[in-house]
Design goal:
With 714 residues, the protein is an alpha/beta fold. It is 47% helix and 22% strand.
């Protein structure tokens, strides 16, 4: 304080300089972030445009397949009828469908508006195509796109062509003319400033409004066409960011002015001190009552805390009549830790406070509602019929799942609910709370419901889990764990390109146990680092054994948990293991979860792994909460598309679009890609078609013991 009294002006001026520099830096970062977001949106539009045109190309492929089947010499009525049907199914987008044996337009539908080109030669009439385009169609043996351009009929459209060959000799051409306006209408390009141009910046379609603003562009490649999709850099974004920065600046200046005002009135505070002391003394009684309230109520949510809940629950049970029943709901927020880890604890506190208020004021007839800690809550209902438990659970879930807007972030949450009953399950409050807690964790494992009513089978299952945890230490010492390996295949060449190491517990009494049964217990017992180290050493040992048998060294991926990253001297120990077995770092690949990749504290370590040549991949990508835009920040080399999207192939167009987007963005950013959980021919063909040939799944091989891998690789 003495320094402040002597030189307050110097301190304030220094603070102002730092403030202005910080705000300028914040402004620069915010503008750059807006530009990145705009370019990501533009890339999504480019993917949609490419997918839209690809759908239209299927018409040409269908006509080509038909002609190759029946031949140009088939019954004209048959060919004309096929064109009528093909046009009827795609009349919204197609201007005409044309078949030109030897380049002469013989079949055309519909005729109205197109008679001017019937009978003309595509090879001789230059008005029917762009210069050199027919020759490119014949030469390419594939699909070509001509346009958009002014057509011979006078309209503006785009022509998709494919040459037909018979015994390697050119036999004719099929083509479909598309209405470019309909293609544009299916994309949100109207009423926007997005435009599509050729490589030489010739306008093709979209917004044609002239602008001298700086343009954001992304390339669009559709068969033989190379376009640019552009949008003016949104200058208004700069002004919005600038306004927000100015408001912050003004707020700080007001604070500084207020501080100066305090200094000016400091002398008056001394005279008020005696009066304040007397007032505080008088308020001690009020403070005492407030302290009692704080002892029983949660300071964040202002609802009863655990202490008050336990006391009040005990009172309710002791005063309960013989016919009295109580239903205890114990619930928490799913994946709430990820909110704290990614958005910060202050946002997490706001979420808890908002949800507590929503639940308290909702239409729930609870007897008692309290927060027991963290993101956990309890509710007690008196004389609730058993058949109404589902209704109450649905109401709780509905209130929690309503979208929250916290500090500009839209959050959609879910809950898991455990239920115990008095007096059916116990007469003791501690047991009822424990049983409801057990049931809540059981509910997290269910797929068709988010609540679970306690039963004695669950208790036996949890006791079994405790027994598993008890024997984990000795299982490590007795080397009861084994590894199976699932091959990873290049579906185009059929060659094995790598494999994933998957752990199993060879229990002496229960036989081979999958990781889903014991991994959670390993985490809870604090043994994940030891188990992971064992897996790495065992993989290296097995690779050396295979090498000695003459097998090629294939890169092997290992699943790494978040806790392993806190292992001391991790990189040094890892390199020491590889050196001991005489292996290069390129033989290992570490698979981490999406939530682990989002923790910036791990970025330096992940970058060191990449620098040493170890491949780092993101497992189950897309199932959590990250967007494709985060990919450029992840210090990883590879993405594994999760099986939940693979199962949607042929079933969900949304899943298929997500896969296409992941493939496109990964290719743009230079990431390797592999799909897991591939089980059907349809899934395989879709992935190959969309440039994801690296496959892992039961379609080729299940996880195999080491001796079977030797048979596959050789």
């Amino acid at each position: 304080m003495a320094f402040i009294n002597k030189k307050p002006l110097t301190i304030i001026l220094g603070f102002l300089v730092v403030l202005q520099l910080s705000l300028f830096y914040y402004y620069s970062l915010s503008v750059e972030r807006e530009y990145r977001a705009e370019k990501a949106d533009l890339s999504s539009q480019a993917v949609m445009l490419t997918s839209n045109i690809e759908e239209q190309v299927s018409i040409v492929k269908g006509v080509s397949s038909f002609i190759q089947t029946v031949g140009f010499d088939a019954d004209p009525n048959l060919i004309n009828q096929y064109l009528v049907n093909a046009h009827r199914n795609n009349s919204n987008n197609v201007m005409n469908i044309m078949i030109a044996p030897d380049g002469l337009i013989r079949y055309l539908y519909p005729l109205p508006g197109n008679t001017a080109i019937l009978g003309k030669s595509l090879l001789l009439d230059s008005a029917l195509s762009s210069p050199g385009m027919i020759q490119e169609t014949i030469r390419s043996h594939g699909i070509t796109i001509d346009g958009p351009r002014i057509l011979a009929q006078g309209d503006y459209g785009m022509v998709i062509r494919q040459a037909i060959y018979k015994n390697s000799a050119f036999a004719g051409i099929v083509s479909v003319t598309l209405k470019i306006d309909n293609i544009v209408d299916q994309l949100p390009l109207k009423n926007t400033q997005i435009s599509v141009t050729a490589d030489d910046h010739t306008f093709l379609f979209g917004s044609s409004s002239p602008t001298e603003e700086k343009q954001l562009t992304v390339p669009v490649t559709v068969y033989n066409q190379h376009w640019l999709m552009s949008i003016p850099v949104p200058s208004q974004k700069k002004w919005e960011v600038l306004r927000s920065v100015l408001w912050i600046d003004i707020a700080f200046l007001l604070v500084i002015a207020f501080i100066l005002y305090i200094f000016w009135h400091q002398s008056r505070f001394n005279r008020e001190l005696e009066r304040v002391v007397s007032i505080r003394t008088r308020d001690l009684r009020v403070s005492k009552r407030l302290y009692e309230k704080l002892a029983h109520y949660d300071s964040l949510t202002e609802i009863p805390n655990r202490r008050y809940f336990m006391d009040e629950f005990e009172r309710l049970l002791q005063s309960a009549e013989l016919t009295q029943t109580y239903t205890l709901f114990f619930f928490d927020l799913n994946r709430f830790k990820e909110i704290n880890d990614t958005l910060g604890h202050s946002i997490g506190d706001q979420v808890i406070k908002t949800l507590a208020s929503r639940l308290k004021s909702g239409p729930l007839p609870f007897k008692l509602f309290a927060r027991t800690g963290g993101d956990e809550f309890v509710m007690i209902f008196a004389d609730l019929p058993r058949e109404d438990i589902r209704v109450i659970a649905g109401q709780i879930s509905g209130l929690i799942s309503e979208t929250l807007l916290i500090s500009g972030a839209h959050l959609s949450l879910s809950t898991s609910i455990g239920v115990s009953l008095y007096p059916e399950h116990s007469l003791n409050k501690d047991d009822l709370l424990k049983f409801a807690d057990m049931s809540m964790y059981q509910a997290k494992t269910l797929e068709d419901a988010n609540f679970f009513i306690f039963d004695w089978e669950l208790r036996e299952k949890l006791e079994q889990k405790t027994m598993i945890a008890k024997y984990l230490h000795s299982a490590l010492e007795r080397e009861e764990f084994v590894l199976h390996y699932q091959p990873q295949i290049n579906a185009i060449t059929g060659k094995m390109i790598g494999m994933e190491a998957l752990i199993r517990w060879n229990h002496p009494e229960k036989g081979l146990i999958g990781p889903g049964t014991f991994i959670a217990a390993v985490e809870e017992a604090g043994l994940m680092i030891q188990l992971t180290d064992w897996v790495i050493r065992e993989v290296c040992r097995q690779l050396c054994e295979w090498r000695a048998m003459g097998l090629p060294l294939l890169r092997t991926s290992i699943n790494i948990s978040n806790s392993w990253f806190y292992n001391r001297n991790l990189i040094e120990n890892l390199l020491a293991v590889l050196d001991h077995y005489g292996l290069e770092t390129s033989v290992l690949e570490f698979e981490i979860t999406e939530s682990t990749a989002l923790l910036e504290e791990h970025y330096p370590l992940l970058q060191q792994m990449r620098d040493h040549g170890i491949i780092v991949s993101i497992d189950d990508f897309g199932t959590k909460y990250s967007s494709l835009n985060y990919l450029k920040h992840f210090p990883v080399n590879k993405i594994k598309i999760d099986r939940t999207f693979i199962t949607g192939i042929g079933v969900s167009s949304i899943d298929e679009t997500i896969i296409k987007s992941i493939v496109f963005v990964a290719s743009q950013l230079g990431y390797d890609l592999i799909a897991e959980g591939v089980e059907t021919q349809e899934q395989l063909e879709f992935l190959i078609k969309h440039n994801c040939p690296h496959i892992q799944g039961f379609f080729f091989f299940p996880p195999l013991p080491p001796e079977d891998i030797h048979k596959v690789a050789s």
